[in-house]
UniProtKB/TrEMBL annotation:
Lineage of source species: Bacteria, Bacillati, Bacillota, Clostridia, Lachnospirales
Domain ATPase AAA-type core positions: 49-364
SUPFAM superfamilies recorded: P-loop containing nucleoside triphosphate hydrolases
Gene3D superfamilies: P-loop containing nucleotide triphosphate hydrolases
Pfam family, one: AAA_21
InterPro entries with a match to the protein in the record: ATPase_AAA_core, P-loop_NTPase
Bilayer-spanning residue ranges: none
Gene Ontology molecular function: ATP binding; ATP hydrolysis activity
Protein name (database record): AAA15 family ATPase/GTPase
Domain of life, per lineage: Bacteria
Length: 421
């Protein structure tokens, strides 16, 4: 489960962004016993969170930052910052030497094996600047270092003699790294250090340790690659899922518990006939009629809301029954408020170690009867700098739980996150 996540200099976000899923230590959480899970490491973690904000404010970029971070673990080539993902105010020149390309990511997680991990990564256009991984078994303990990698030398020479050709910059780079891996064999540490200092391209050390059999490297890498599920809404989600055509999705569709989730959108649905080749378009949805009979319809001929929820229900299944961490971009854009509340109540009502964080334009989610203040986040964009900012409703001490109609504060621009500010 995610405890804390920070990043800096990514797309519309320039300054440090902080996002937390740690439940408050105050008595207020007693009002919401289903909204968090108590872990064996001594920290209570929130199951759900909602991110509200204006169009083009940065909500999708927030989720994309996690996809970008995850991509470093999924590829084997060098890890570095790319111009297209740098904040525009830091990337004012096509020559990377004249821009601020330094990005940082930090994530603190809890895994089922009763261990907390803290991972920090800094990259620029050359490659990795710093990488660190720590662990501890209790929240009250201090973190112990698993490894650290720091770049202590970086020489950049312009092959074009400071004159870029066709707005392209060609550089030669020489780098040197220092490794610190306590408890690891010094010979392996020297091999890693020598390999890093011989070539510019450097992948993540944590993935290398995982391949060498280090238990912490394996656990953390597996979590990032297989448990973290950031889903940005580039196209209709049912079409997106159909294009990915993942084997795990087909397995879930055949699970009877999936039908219970999918039926939230229409309780006349009583069964599914899953199409093995095109499950997100050709699956047959079977409904019960008023007279007791049944009728069937291909998913592709059903409503857009039903089609999209058919796909999103797979992700909800992963949260509740597979302890996945799902970030959903505008899942409820085609869902009515009642169904959205039903989904959140379902996730909160189950005992699991998954998390569901979603972005929305639905102001009815600004409700302190269903959410703690720590579960509601806003994204707003400065109209002059075009830089995004993420912050929690908990940052507003004047907002009390007895205050009704929080969405009215939001619509008036008092809480930010609206285009009128």
């Amino acid at each position: 489960m995610i405890l804390n996540y920070k990043f800096k200099n990514f797309m519309s976000f320039k300054e440090n962004v902080e996002f937390s899923m740690v439940a408050p230590k105050t008595k207020v959480k007693k009002r919401f016993p289903d909204n968090f899970i108590t872990t064996n490491v001594g920290v209570d973690v929130l199951k759900t969170a909602v991110v509200v904000g204006e169009n083009a404010g940065g909500k999708s970029n927030f989720i994309r930052s996690l996809s970008y971070f995850q991509s470093f673990f999924l590829k084997t080539e060098s890890t570095k910052a790319y111009n297209n993902f740098i904040n525009t105010n830091n990337n004012q020149d096509f020559c990377p030497k004249k821009s601020n390309t330094l990005q940082s990511f930090e994530i603190e997680i809890f895994v089922k094996e009763n261990i907390m991990y803290l991972y920090h990564l800094e990259v620029d256009f050359v490659g990795i600047v710093k990488e660190e991984l720590y662990f501890k078994k209790l929240e009250k303990n201090k973190y112990k270092k698993i490894f650290s990698v720091a770049r202590n030398q970086c020489q950049i020479e312009c092959k074009n003699k400071d004159e870029c050709i066709n707005q392209k910059c060609y550089t030669e780079v020489k780098v040197a790294y220092i490794f610190d891996i306590p408890g690891f064999e010094k010979e392996i540490e020297r091999v890693l250090e020598n390999a890093a200092n011989k070539e510019k391209a450097l992948g993540l050390t944590v993935t290398k340790l995982a391949m060498l059999g280090n238990e912490h490297g394996i656990a953390f890498t597996d979590w990032v690659k297989n448990v973290l599920c950031p889903e940005t809404n580039i196209i209709n989600y049912d079409i997106y899922k159909s294009m990915k055509n993942e084997v795990d999705d087909l397995r879930i569709l055949h699970d009877s518990r999936y039908l219970d989730i999918f039926r939230m959108i229409d309780y006349s649905i009583i069964d599914l006939k899953v199409d093995e080749e095109k499950p997100f378009s050709k699956t047959m949805v079977i409904r019960k009629k008023k007279d007791g009979g049944t009728f069937s319809r291909d998913l592709v001929h059903d409503s857009s809301g039903v089609r999209e929820f058919f796909a999103w229900a797979v992700q909800i299944f992963k949260v509740v029954y597979e302890n996945k961490i799902v970030f959903a971009d505008e899942m409820d854009r085609v869902l009515n408020p009642v169904l959205s509340d039903r989904v959140i109540s379902f996730i909160n009502g189950k005992n699991h170690f998954g998390q569901f964080i979603f972005t929305t334009h639905n102001v009815l989610h600004l409700d302190l009867k269903n959410y703690m203040k720590e579960q509601i986040y806003f994204v707003t964009k400065d109209i002059e700098t075009l830089e995004s900012e993420l912050y929690s409703l908990a940052d507003f001490p004047e907002i009390r739980y007895e205050t009704t109609k929080i969405y009215e504060f939001y619509m008036k621009g008092i809480l930010g996150g609206t285009a009128i500010e």
